[in-house]
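cron nightly-structures :: item 1 of 1
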Amino acid sequence: MSDIQEQIQRERESARAVCSTEGDTSGECAAAWDTVEELSAEASHRKQKVPQKSSLEQYCDDNPDALECRVYED
């Protein structure tokens, strides 16, 4: 995940540089910020894909011998 964050940071710096040389209303500036936005959206989507454990699952991971975490087979 840190790779995409590093890439976002590099693209932000690039977008700032492009906008300072080409102007804030230039097409190049808009395209550079579009790239940053797309990468940020991808990072957000990746975060959402990670399934979150319930509080019971987290508890059982930390305390596998607890009564609440026993699994009975029929």
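cron nightly-structures :: done
Residues 27 and 61 are 52 Å apart (CA to CA).
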